[in-house]
Design a protein that fits this description.
Elements lengths: L6 E6 L3 E6 L3 E7 L12 E2 L2 E2 L2 H12 L10 E6 L4 H12 L6 E6 H8 L8 E6 L4 E7 L2 E8 L13 H17 L4 H8 L1 E4 L6 H11 L3 E3 L6 H13 L3 H4 L14
Parallel strand pairs: 1-6, 6-7, 8-11, 11-12
Antiparallel strand pairs: 1-2, 2-3, 4-5, 8-9, 9-10
Helix pairs in contact: 1-2, 3-7, 4-6
Length: 260
């Protein structure tokens, strides 16, 4: 890999951190944990970077030795839609440890849609049920039109058949979107079928009950738990061809058409 081609896609969730290096594919899918002392610390919680130095230590430990020497990688970073500015600021500070040439940020919902090869010219509802956080995002023309989130995820489901809290949360968020949308965008997206991603999409009981609660079809993304990182990898591949990625920029600066 040449210095100009070095690129990294990064998806840092509350439970798992995944990384994709250009030319090598996905190289990491590990717990989001750092070890500053005797015990483990979780630097990202419920979709928020709560420990910036801890996140930096984790990235250095996991990726510092995996990137080609003397390179400044182009980094594509997925972010939650809500609280996105705060997350991006803290995440970019942590990513500085990797000495990035440029950092491009993308909403996780858009990355999921790209991984699913979804038609972004039409309204699309993305339901991302993670371990500790669930986001419902409405995309229109590929841009965020509306979004809701709740600090509930698959780890809050204690046993099969006890997914009522997640079902209720998702149903409430989508119902709220429908009521507040004076246009037909939300209704059109729901009738088209919501896109389901995250670890929750791997639970057949949750998917079945959610379909019944919404009275609308759901389409699970292939390998839904890794959809965000695969979508980020697609953006990484296209970003290398963009003029802004060919010139050096100060580390952490957002640039290019995929920044959010």
């Amino acid at each position: 890999m040449c210095r100009q081609c070095c690129g990294l896609a990064l998806d840092m969730g509350s439970a798992r951190t995944r990384a994709w290096i250009a030319g090598r594919g996905m190289i990491l899918d590990v717990p989001t944990i750092t070890f500053p002392g005797a015990g483990a610390v979780y630097p990202i919680q419920r979709g928020a970077v709560v420990d910036v130095p801890g996140t930096a230590r984790m990235l250095d430990r996991l990726l510092g030795h995996r990137l080609p020497r003397l390179t400044r990688p182009l980094v594509v970073l997925t972010t939650p839609v809500l609280d996105g500015p705060t997350y991006r600021e803290r995440a970019r500070t942590a990513v500085e440890v990797l000495r990035p040439r440029t950092v491009l940020t993308v909403p996780a919902a858009r990355a999921i849609a790209l991984a699913a090869d979804a038609d972004l010219s039409r309204p699309l509802l993305v339901v991302d049920i993670g371990a500790h956080l669930t986001e419902v995002v409405l995309l229109s023309e590929g841009m965020v039109f509306d979004a809701r989130r709740t600090a509930v995820g698959t780890t809050d489901i204690s046993a099969p058949g006890t997914s009522a809290e997640v079902i209720e949360a998702v149903t409430t968020m989508i119902t709220s979107m429908l009521r507040q949308d004076r246009s037909s965008v939300t209704a059109d997206a729901l009738c088209r079928g919501a896109l389901l991603a995250g670890g929750g999409a791997l639970r057949p009981d949750l998917t079945y009950r959610l379909t019944g609660s919404l009275h609308a079809p759901l389409r699970a993304v292939p390998a839904p738990h890794t959809a965000a990182i695969r979508g980020a990898a697609k953006i990484l591949q296209s970003a290398h061809a963009h003029p802004s990625a060919r010139s050096a920029h100060p580390p952490g600066r957002n640039t290019g058409p995929h920044s959010h």
